[in-house]
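Propose amino acids for all 149 sites.
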C-alpha cells in the first residue's frame, strides 16, 4: 500500500490540522480506512495510530471495513426511530449476521446507520444502494434484503 498511499499523502506534507482531510482522502481512495493505511498516516503525521482511531471513530463518515457489494442504510433519525427504526435495524442485523458498521464475510452487504434521509414522511425508511424503501417493518425489511441475495 505504501506507494499507493503516498500520492494521497504528498499534498498534505507539512500541513497542520490535516488529519480529517487525510482520512477523507484515504477513504475516497480505498472505500474505507484500511488498518495499514491508518498506520501509515500515523507515521506521516507522527502521532499514535490509537489517537487516529480515537478521532476517526468519532465521525460516522469513516468506515473500517471494506464496503459490501450492496450498502444497506437504516435510518435511525427521530421520525424513523419512533416508528420502529431500531427494530428494523435489529431484524436486518439478524438477517445478515452483522452489526451496523460491518460488512458480511462474503462482502455482499455492508450495513450502516443514518441520522435522517430527509424523507421523514416515508418513515421508517431503509435505503439499499440508491433505492429508498418506505414504511418498513422488520418483516418487510428482511424480505427485501433476501431479494438482494
Ligand atoms: S428520520 Fe428517517 S428519514 Fe428522516
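Proposal:
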Amino acid at each position: 500500500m505504501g506507494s499507493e498511499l503516498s500520492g494521497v499523502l504528498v499534498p498534505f506534507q507539512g500541513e497542520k490540522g490535516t488529519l480529517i482531510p487525510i482520512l477523507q482522502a484515504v477513504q475516497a481512495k480505498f472505500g474505507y480506512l484500511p488498518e495499514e493505511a491508518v498506520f501509515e498516516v500515523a507515521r506521516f503525521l507522527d502521532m499514535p495510530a490509537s489517537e487516529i482511531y480515537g478521532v476517526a471513530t468519532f465521525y460516522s463518515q469513516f468506515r473500517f471495513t471494506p464496503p459490501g457489494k450492496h450498502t444497506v442504510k437504516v435510518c435511525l433519525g427521530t421520525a424513523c426511530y419512533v416508528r420502529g427504526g431500531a427494530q428494523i435495524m435489529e431484524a436486518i442485523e439478524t438477517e445478515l449476521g452483522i452489526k451496523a458498521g460491518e460488512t458480511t464475510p462474503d462482502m455482499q452487504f455492508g450495513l450502516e446507520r443514518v441520522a435522517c434521509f430527509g424523507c421523514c414522511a416515508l418513515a421508517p425508511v431503509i435505503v439499499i444502494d440508491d433505492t429508498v424503501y418506505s414504511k418498513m417493518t422488520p418483516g418487510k425489511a428482511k424480505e427485501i434484503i433476501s431479494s438482494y441475495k
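The mean pLDDT is 92. The longest helix spans residues 19-30.
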